[in-house]
Design goal:
The chain is α/β, with parallel strands linked by helices. The chain contains 13 helices and 18 strands. Bound molecules: adenosine-5'-diphosphate, aspartic acid and magnesium ion (MG). Aspartic acid binds next to helix 7.
Length: 416
C-alpha cells in the first residue's frame, strides 16, 4: 500500500491532477483497490484529482467478440453502445471503492461530463469538453471518476474514441481543466527506447519531446494513443507516463529544448498493422497515381508508404501500404482501377511490418539512414520500402523479421 504518492516531490502543495489508469491497472478488484489507494493518497496530499479509467483488461476485446458473433459487420452505432459499457463498469467500481474508504468520489460517464465528439462511431474525435460540472465537483473537494474512451455526439448518441482512447480522454480532460499534470498509469514504468516486451535492452526515457512521441505513437508504439499526444502538444499538457505498480518516476512529455538533438535516435518501433498492395505492369503515364489514389482517399483510407518502380518499356509496378483493416476495401477499389487502366494484375501481402527509428537528432546527424541499412544488411533483412521525414526513417520488411529488426536497430543506436 502506498502511504503517499512518491514522485510528487517536485509538485506544489496543492495541484490539479488528472490520473488515467489503463486496463491492466484496473484488471481485477484487487487492482481497483490499489488504484483507489493511490487516488486517495493523492487526495490526502491536498491535491484535486480527476481520475479517468479504461475498461478492465480484455473486456473491450470480449465485447467486440460478442458483436462479431452477431455479425461480421456489426452496426457501428450499436457497437459503441456495447463497448462503452466496459468503462461504465470500472468507473462504478472505482467510485464505489473510494466511497467505501470514506472518500467523496463520484462517477461520470462521457455524456454526463459532456465529452462532445463528432459522429464517427468507433473513431470519434473530441470536439469540446464541458469542464464546469467536473470543476464544480473538484472545488467541492470531491474526486471525479470519469469513464475513458467514450463521448457523446450532437444527437446524444454514444461514441467511442478508437482503441487506446482512454489516453485521449485523460489528456483532453487535463487540457480542458488546465490541470497541472496528467499522469498516465500503465503496465510499464514509462516510455522506453523500444517496446520492452520486444527489446530486453530497451531503457526508460526520462523525457521525450511531444514531436518524437507523436511519431512513435503513430508508428506503432501503443503506449499512448496518437490523439492523446496531439492534445498534449497542442495544449502543452505536462504528461507523465508511469507505472501503476510502482512509485518510480516515469517519462515526462516535454517541449523540445536545446540538447535534445544531441540524441540521434530516441526510439525504435514497429507496426504490424500493414498490408502491401501492388498494381503490376501498369502503363506509366501522367495521371496514373491520381487515378489509383483518388478513390482510396475518397474512402478515407490512409495510404502510408508508396513506391513506383523505374519504368521499363512504358510499364511500371506501383506498391503502397494501407492499414490491415482497410485492405479489403482498398483492394476492391484498386482492382477496379487496375481494370480501367489496363494493368497486369493486383497482388497483396499482409505478412509485412513497418519498422521505424525516431529522433530529433536526425535533423542534424548525417548518416543515420546508412547506419540503419547497414545494420539490416548485416542481418540479411531485406528492405522492401523506405520512407523518411525530418525526424524518422521507416522501412517495410517481411513480418517474420519484425522483432529481430527492432532489436538489432536498437543495439546499433543504443549500444550497451
Ligand atoms: P494501457 O492498458 O495501460 O493503456 P497499453 O497496453 O495500451 O496499456 O500500453 C502499454 C504497452 O505499450 C506496454 O505494455 C508495452 O508493451 C507497449 N509499448 C510499445 N512500445 C512501447 C514503448 N516504446 N515504451 C513503453 N511501452 C511500449
Ligand atoms: N478500453 C478501450 C480499449 O481497450 C480504451 C482504452 O483502454 O484506452 O481500447
Ligand atoms: Mg492503452
Amino acid at each position: 500500500m502506498l502511504g503517499r504518492p512518491v514522485g510528487y516531490g517536485k509538485y506544489r502543495s496543492s495541484m490539479l491532477i488528472v490520473q488515467k489508469y489503463g486496463g491492466t491497472s484496473v484488471g481485477s478488484i484487487e487492482r481497483i483497490r490499489g488504484v483507489a489507494r493511490r487516488v486517495a493518497a493523492t487526495h490526502d496530499a491536498g491535491h484535486q484529482v480527476a481520475v479517468v479509467v479504461s475498461a478492465m483488461s480484455g473486456e473491450t476485446n470480449r465485447l467486440l467478440g460478442l458483436a462479431k458473433e452477431i455479425s461480421s459487420h456489426p452496426d457501428e452505432r450499436e457497437c459503441d453502445v456495447l463497448v462503452s459499457t466496459g468503462e461504465q463498469v470500472t468507473v462504478a467500481l472505482l467510485a464505489m471503492t473510494l466511497k467505501d474508504m470514506g472518500y467523496p468520489a463520484f462517477s461520470l460517464l462521457g455524456h454526463q461530463v459532456q465529452i462532445a465528439t463528432d459522429s464517427a462511431f468507433g473513431k470519434a474525435r473530441i470536439r469540446h469538453i464541458e469542464a464546469e460540472r467536473l470543476m464544480t465537483g473538484l472545488h467541492q473537494g470531491r474526486i471525479a471518476v470519469v469513464a475513458g474512451f467514450q463521448g457523446v455526439d450532437a444527437d446524444d448518441n454514444i461514441t467511442t474514441l478508437g482503441r487506446g482512447g482512454s489516453d485521449t480522454t485523460g489528456v483532453a480532460i487535463a487540457a480542458a481543466i488546465q490541470a497541472d499534470a496528467c499522469e498516465i498509469y500503465t503496465d510499464v514504468d514509462g516510455v522506453y527506447s523500444a517496446d520492452p516486451r520486444i527489446c530486453p535492452h530497451a531503457h526508460k526515457l526520462h523525457r521525450i519531446s511531444y514531436d518524437e512521441m507523436l511519431e512513435l505513437a503513430s508508428l506503432g508504439a501503443k503506449v499512448l494513443q496518437i490523439r492523446s499526444v496531439e492534445f498534449a502538444k497542442r495544449y502543452s499538457v505536462p504528461v507523465h507516463v508511469r507505472s501503476s505498480f510502482s512509485a518510480d518516476e516515469g517519462t515526462w512529455l516535454v517541449r523540445e529544448d536545446a540538447g535534445m538533438e544531441e540524441v540521434t535516435v530516441a526510439g525504435v518501433t514497429s507496426d504490424s498493422d500493414q498490408t502491401k498492395i501492388t498494381i503490376l505492369h501498369v502503363p506509366d503515364r501522367p495521371g496514373l497515381a491520381a487515378s489509383v489514389f483518388g478513390p482510396i482517399a475518397e474512402s478515407n483510407i490512409v495510404v502510408d508508404m508508396i513506391i513506383q518502380n523505374a519504368s521499363a518499356e512504358g510499364f511500371t509496378d506501383l506498391t503502397f501500404t494501407v492499414p490491415k483493416g482497410d485492405a479489403q476495401k482498398a483492394l476492391s477499389l484498386v482492382k477496379a482501377t487496375a481494370a480501367e487502366v489496363g494493368a497486369g494484375g493486383v497482388a497483396t501481402d499482409s505478412d509485412v511490418a513497418k519498422v521505424s527509428i525516431v529522433g530529433l537528432g536526425m535533423r542534424s546527424h548525417a548518416g543515420v539512414a546508412a547506419r540503419m541499412f547497414q545494420t539490416l544488411a548485416r542481418e540479411r533483412i531485406n528492405v522492401q520500402m523506405i520512407s523518411t521525414s525530418e525526424i524518422k526513417i521507416s522501412i517495410v520488411v517481411d513480418a517474420k523479421y519484425t522483432e529481430l529488426a527492432v532489436r538489432v536497430l536498437h543495439d546499433t543506436f543504443f549500444p550497451a
